[in-house]
User: Fold these one by one.
Assistant:
Number 1:
Amino acid sequence: MDPRGLEFLDEETPRIIMFCGKGGVGKTTCASTTAVHFALKGYRTLLISTDPAPSLSDMLELDVGGAITPIPSVPGLEVVELDYDDVVEKWKEKFGAEVYELISAFLPVDEDIIEYVAGAPGIDEEFALSYVYDLYVGGGYDVIVWDTAPAGGTLNLLKIEETFYVHLGEAAKMYVRVRSALDALTQGRAKRDPLKIIGEWEQLAKNVLDMMKDDGTRAFLVTIPEALGVNQTQRVADDLRRFGIRVGGVVINHVLTEEAADSDFNRARRAMQLRHVEELEKTYGGTMPVVQLPLQPYEVRGVETLKKVEKILFPEPT
Ligand SMILES: Nc1ncnc2c1ncn2[C@@H]1O[C@H](COP(=O)(O)OP(=O)(O)OP(=O)(O)O)[C@@H](O)[C@H]1O
Ligand SMILES: [Mg+2]
């Protein structure tokens, strides 16, 4: 039977459910609704946003902030929005000492180098992913629902992670080649073997990439039935495949229902939308579920509204 919504996720619930797509198509709506759904079903659920312009707080009408916050009206649901300043602070706490150890093994530097490295491009993204990884392996959650940054954003995180991984491998090889010269230069200043530190970082990057490729991780493409959305969806789908991330389905949001198409204006709009719905079904329908989320007459805000949308996105099997 064709799914009407995402109810098929109840049968085989992924450990990580990501929502990806272009700006404003409804990623936060789908992610929040899905997280509410699984929490209501009794799963320990974490809703996380790595969007640098986060909107979970607005959607939940709560000040979530950079700390993991329980949602009192939905037992079992916790929410966190990564605050990127906070991310850099946490990165320094976690890796600062290692960075200093590593670099001071090569060069006569003082601890200011930590600040410098912490400000380097990609470090916040790198940490955002290792933060998700820690929560994933921590075992505290049955399901992690991930509200990602628009379109390229999250995949950039992965590109950086992949680059980082490759570079670490290169760094280790380079270090081996120059090791004896460096040892003479630094006269054994390093407290720990730099190769070990590089190796640990490399392992962490690999773990993150493996988590994304895991069979228990599913990305959903969220789009609107318009050409811009459809084209962007294709690009995001291609990128996800390139990283070996499994795509679990497509959600076409903002669809005007037949009842809603009650004026010439709305009938014309619905006809336009249906052409794109058909195109999406033709492209993806053969390999994955393609479901629709109708446009609602209300704004999606607050937990009570999310519970209403939950009934639409996760209809009871008939
Ligand atoms: N099916 C729907 N019916 C009515 N309103 C909707 C629906 N889906 C989303 N919205 C509204 O559309 C707006 C954008 O949705 P949302 O914030 O989920 O998109 P997004 O993809 O997360 O955006 P961004 O890329 O900015 O993070 C919100 O104001 C939300 O309330
Ligand atoms: Mg959003």
Note: Residues 23-29, 51, 55, 150, 253-254, 293, 295-296, 299-300 surround adenosine-5'-triphosphate (ligand 1) (CB under 6 Å).
Number 2:
Amino acid sequence: MRPISLYNTLTRSVDPVVPLVPGVISLYTCGPTVYNFAHIGNLKTYLFQDLLKRTFLAGGYQVRHCMNITDVEDKIIRDSQADLSPDAGNPERFAAMKALTDRYTAFFLEDLAALGILPPTYTPKATEHIPDMIRMVQELESKGLAYSRDGSVYYRIAGLPQYGRLARLDRDGMKQGVSVDADDYERDSMQDFVLWKAAKPGEPWWDSPWGHGRPGWHIECSAMGISLLGERIDIHSGGVDLIFPHHENEIAQSEGCLGHPWVNSWVHGEFLLVNGEKMSKSLGNFYTLRDLQAKGYDPRAFRFTIQSNHYRKVLNFSFDGLKAAEQALKRIRLFRKRMEGEGLPGHGEWKASIDPLERVQTAREAFWTALGDDLNTPEALAALFTAITDLNAQDDRVALTRAERDAVLAFLIETDAVFACWPHEEVETDTAVAALIERRKAAKAARDWAEADKVRDRLKEMGIVLEDRKDGTVTWRKA
Ligand SMILES: [Zn+2]
């Protein structure tokens, strides 16, 4: 297994990752709150986590990956309940919440597929783990780390000596006995945070020892992480905005219950800016993946834009940058095609000739050394691009043999296992067609005939003819 080091927010240093179970990495990544489309800043985080996971897989490890779906939360309730009458019953409130979250979960999974993000081993929904959350809150109460008030339950942060360690908070700033109900708040209001929220009128609720209510956002991840990955986890990851309060609170809840350290490495990805500014709807610089697709950009070019940048550096997204990524990708894809084909004969000797096999081996070592050093993608890609320059020049003068071309191809396939941006082209068509067929199936199931027709037209443009079989399956062929 290849050694891999990551910057650990807990220690503030790049440390080698030594899995708890040899050869197996347990990875928890905070998933989306499904009340809207993911924006490109959210997607930056999921893309860096996919690269992290693929680097371990390529290094010979198994990865047990859990990514939660937050399907009960303040904003979900706000948006899903708005049109209901004040005297709607709880089943009706649940149905409205589920309709909204199912819809955006499906869109989210479509985005992940379009970006080539590998599906997690587990994708639990918060609403499927309410009993686990209630049990944890009870455990914290029994240990004196939580107290209830007016049907809500709060974490007593003064009770946990390590509270504030991850975010390096000054414990003197702790507001003892003051509690906060919102799930998200600023560093300077370090307070007792909410674990269980009493239901207000017009909100969906579960029964609990404290009356009708629902879980706070932070307890959701602790409960799902422990129940699916166990009491000790190798890596927990999210965007830097989650360090405080979300991850600090996850540690407090989990370690408060377990009585021992929970996560070995905390790994955080930096922000994305658009043209140097924070993305916001009011500035008109707010984009989803669908916005980029509608402008005709390949989702894989967006993936490449994100991955060419080191995950711990702020990425300044621009359409010029996206176009440059498209060009860089085109270079690798054309090179792959060239290596898949045969060299042109008759170019003869070249006094600057290199040994292609040696050249590939040098690039391979540099590539994996860079990725193993805190996922240094800019350096890994530099190793790949200089090899492409050298090998193209060589192939211009002295055509590479079939065996040499195959060695180069093996390296390209190996590197694509991490970047997922330069596949063999026919494979790409197959995946795109399969995704569109699925989308059409979903549209038909939802009786959205206009959407189903639109997808069929899109396939027609791609030169694909669909054949609906009597048994309900769909086959396709090139026209
Ligand atoms: Zn989380």
Note: Residues 30, 221, 246, 250 surround zinc ion (CB under 6 Å).
Number 3:
Amino acid sequence: MKLPQLQIGNILPKFPIVQGGMALRVSTAPLASAVANAGGIGVLGATGMSEEELREEIRKTRRLTSGPLGVNIMFAIKNFPKMVYTAIEEKIDVIFTGAGFSRDIFHWSKESGVPVVSIVSSTKLAVLAEKLGASAVVVEGVEAGGHLGTDKPLTEILPSIRKAINIPLIAAGGIIDGKGIAKMLQLGADGVQMATRFVLSKECDVSDSFKQMYLKAKPEDVVIIPSPVGLPGRALHNPFASKIIQGEKITPENCDNCLKKCSKQYCIMKALDNSCIGNVNEGIVFAGKNVHKIKDILPVQEIFNRLIREAKEN
Ligand SMILES: Cc1cc2nc3c(=O)[nH]c(=O)nc-3n(C[C@H](O)[C@H](O)[C@H](O)COP(=O)(O)O)c2cc1C
């Protein structure tokens, strides 16, 4: 099929592919710049960074690419407004926001001219996002990695949301190849957001043990875990996941109250950071449902070549 032109505000990426933002330091400058250079929209996962770290990461990414660059900032974090201001000050091209819904961000977007994309999983929130001024929505189905806002498959929620809104719709959750992209475009999406596929890229900065867990994953290893944020999350099974699924409380050594609301069952920032730096058994390894279908670690450019070829063939 012919690939459509995705437009978010004034951003016109060569291909309608967004790399999903991934906390904690899973999507950083090397991955986001490689995606932007390959023709997609590269996205930094800002959650878990300080404002200064985010500022530095944006500057670092800009030195590596002149392509479209976004940040993903979770609404659930306390320093959400400051992170948004920092991204705006650094002249980011687009802000993606999920894990809760911010109304304020649309005022900041209007003042600054920086487009905002809301990550939603229901028609209600998609319609609200459009009404408040979102430039596009990411519609995330239950297949997605990370925090989940629905228990419904993407193919079930996408058609009704498509009918309800006129702004661009970006489909996310479980898309790992060009066939999956073509399917979403045929269902009315203007583009796709993919995260898990890009973890298994040469450029993704995450520890090798994180990538090896992805490569070894079987379908039954992908589980739903509770998150202190108050949403379920999709991750790979490991000793840490076992403990938290059983309801064990893992009190962190210190807590800087980084979330607006936190169940305090365990520290999600510490757990995500542990796996990112290689201590996978003591951490959470977020992954999408179709992780087991990905068999190789490739350079981002090669992933794009394949995705585009396969999508055009379908
Ligand atoms: C390791 C990992 C970390 C993630 N972190 C975030 C995040 O910080 N904010 C967010 O909105 N989504 C996050 N997500 C969700 C992705 O951005 C994306 O929408 C989703 O994973 C798409 O499904 P896929 O991974 O099957 O492609 C994360 C996903 C993964 C796999």
Note: The two ends are 6 Å apart (CA to CA).
Number 4:
Amino acid sequence: MHELGIMTDVLDTALRVAEEHGGKKVTKITLKVGLMSGVIPTYVQSFFDVISKDTIAKDAEIAIEPDPAVFTCRKCGGKTVYNELGPEYVCEHCGSQALRLISGYGFQIISVGII
Ligand SMILES: [Zn+2]
């Protein structure tokens, strides 16, 4: 239940933002979700709906900006971008599997919409 803990943090942050700005309702939350973050975007909205139902963030739309996985190769130094989870990750330049993940493992709140 990785998503549940994360979405609880997202909800807390959204409620704090609304409070700081005198918002009456949270309408939309935009999240950037790294491909390698372990968060499955399709579960995010349903988790959020459950935990937010007694708050002013009820019915807020969760918008997700996917963040692809970017690797650099330890052998040739080339960069490879994956937009989907794969069974394995190989350098598109030399075929090496000695890759280092440099982007796409994070999760962040981009914006919170309030009215
Ligand atoms: Zn390579």
Note: The beta strands are 26-34, 61-67, 69-73, 79-82, 99-103, 107-114.
